[in-house]
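ZP: hey, is the 2-oxoglutaric acid complex queued? I don't see it on the tracker
AM: it wasn't, my bad. submitting now with these inputs:
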Amino acid sequence: MAKFCHMIPKIPSSGSSLSMEKHKEEPVNFGRSLIVPSVQELAKQSITKIPPRYVQHHHHPASDDAPTASMPVIDLHCLFAEPCGSLAYSFELNKLHTASKEWGFFQVINHGISESLLEDFKREIMNFFKLPMEEKLKLWQEEDNHEGFGQLFVVSEEQKLDWSDMFYITTLPHNLRKSQLFQKLPIILREKLEAYSMEMKRLAVAILGQMAKALGMDTEEMSELFQDGVQSVRMNYYPPCPQPEVALGFSPHSDADALTILYQLNETAGLQIRKDGKWVTIKPRADALIVNIGDILEIVSNGVYKSVEHRAIVNSNNERMSVATFYSPNMGTELGPARSLVAEHHVAHFRRVPIDEYFKEFFARKLDGKSYLDFMKLE
Ligand SMILES: O=C(O)CCC(=O)C(=O)O
């Protein structure tokens, strides 16, 4: 009988993990961010110059002039539906491995997320950002917690700000949710978010399972680490900007999680990744989702896979929207290089820390490229 390597997991019920004892009752507060004004509202005024707090000083080409790059495309049908020993499977697994090592980013096609869910979710997010300000204020961040509308990683009044608004929410496991925030979401958005969140978890766990195989890591170790993982969703809205060459939609950063899945809601380009020292623009491909390696996976893979710096630029004519879904290990686990890989590599390249401490430290910092990962590195 053909042996299939796909791991389309059954979604375990949230909170079922034994490692969650300590976190059963309370949603965890991972951090706060200073409250800043809405950029969407600012952009509605017909200004020709942006306020100094949004001028980031490094001039860069607006999205239409920047060099573009063809990011590797992984056909998930070959990984999830072809027999393990087949040529098609081995070829695609090798592509996944190479992209994860050399790009830290790839696009996935035939990902199995239904077109109708993607369309419905897109429509609801677009409506969400169109809500009147008095409605949005009910969902705005609070001083002691960064979930809601606003910006993340704002730690001082002097800090430069991004030309964007975002809505950030912890979605899984259920016991980590801020239920008051969830309940205030428009009902259809909430339903679509629930469905999307489950699909993103299924997809992330399935891709991580394939990566474990490609890395030569114990697949059980990978699935245990991520069976009841922490998921959060960040919806980004980048309004047109009168001075796109001096503003940034999202400052350069690598993601702190293990695996991010990015859904670009419209055709407007804006995502740039740092490739061989240069910023290159990734053109949205309508049938693909973008996947990138986060710092946690760089750590778990003992440095074999790379989390790569990326940023979003803006342009003067078009708004842009995207949704990033971040997937991280179960709460209560210790983060560090996979033991099965350390045994094979005979060396650990990163320190070990409890996962909740790792996140609290990450959100307490201003975003600064890959500096946080450097802090986790062992000499
Ligand atoms: O909007 C984009 O293309 C990038 C978004 C992103 O990097 C994020 O939400 O972490």
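AM: back. Residues 31-376 form a domain with the Jelly Rolls fold (CATH 2.60.120.330).
ZP: great, adding it to the tracker
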